[in-house]
Amino acid sequence: MDIEKCRALLCTLETGSLSAASEELGYTPSGISRMMASLEEETGFELLIRSRNGIKPTENCKKLLPIIREMVSLGDRYKQTADEIKGLVSGTVTVGNTYLSYYSWLARLIADFGRNYPNITVRIIEGTSSELITAIEEQRADFCIISHRPGDYDWIHLKNDEMVAWVPPNHKLAAGKTFPLKAVTKEPFIEIFPGQETDNSLMFASNHIKPNTKYVSLDSAVAYSMVEAGLGISTANAIVSDALNGDVNVLPLDPPQIVDIGVAIPREKNLSPAAKHFVDFAKKSI
């Protein structure tokens, strides 16, 4: 089976469209379409569901995806190892990040790395910690800054981060030294990334708390502005608060809620040569 066709399939599913995949991989949309048709013919059944909402995998395709990802990963490692034997260092490294505060450090790290390894491309993705740990496990990412999640990967601790409450300045609890966590069950609450596994949702689940959700947001900065406008309260990582400015009281939670933030890396046996170079380089900076 052609590795490039498999790569095109994964990219199509990741981007949700043939045109986006063609742009990322350097093919024409018709070229990607022919590759998908050829792959479906080789496989013997349909792999993609096409709709106005984008492209999704069929149930049969979902069963093959772990194997396809492994094939693409092995193909990349084969090429990069062959290049190293020839004295070349090339490849692509995918770096994930959850927290805005770490982008400046990542940018400097990638710039320094690029000067030392000019033939290695670094690709940056973002998402929640749970989304990025899934990317690590599915071999779609090589180095992710996240809060700790269960899983089979290597972990580099960066810091212990405190969960905090965002409170409007005129709120009756705004003047306190801490914010009682149980108050989220009564006060109007602004939920960030509803329906997703986040540090917020895990915190509430572990404390057996159901917030009084009145508003939802898919962006932390938007939720922060909603708190500033007096619509309600919210909770977030302190490191998220550090990257935002506004008229919002940021209070530690009572009882304290601590999150382990660090770098998730695939086990060394699963690292491509390019990813290993990046991880080794990053460890010196860390």
Element pattern in H and E = HHHEEHEHEHEEEEHEHEHEEH
Whole-number mean pLDDT: 92
Termini, distance in Å? 40 Å
The number of helical runs is: 10
Biggest sheet details: 8 strands, mixed
What is the H level of CATH, i.e. the homologous superfamily of the domain at 161-258? Periplasmic binding protein-like II
Instruction: Output the CATH class name of the domain at 161-258.
Output: Alpha Beta
The value of Rg in angstroms is 22 Å
> What is the overall shape?
globular
Low-confidence stretches: none
CATH topology of the domain at 161-258: D-Maltodextrin-Binding Protein, domain 2
Percent of residues in beta strands: 15-25%
CATH architectural group of the domain at 161-258:
3-Layer(aba) Sandwich
Percent of residues in helices: 40-55%
Counting helices, strands and paired strands, the structural category is alpha/beta
Number of strands: 12
Describe it for me?
The model has no long low-confidence stretch (mean pLDDT 92). Helix 5 links the parallel strand 3 and strand 4. Among the domains are: 1-71, Arc Repressor Mutant, subunit A, CATH 1.10.10; 161-258, D-Maltodextrin-Binding Protein, domain 2. Helix content is 42%, strand content 24%. The radius of gyration is 22 Å and the shape is globular. The chain has ten helices and twelve strands. The protein is of the alpha/beta class and 286 residues long. Helix 2 (18-25) packs across helix 3. The strands form three sheets. Strands 3, 4, 5, 6, 7, 10, 11 and 12 form an eight-stranded mixed sheet that branches.
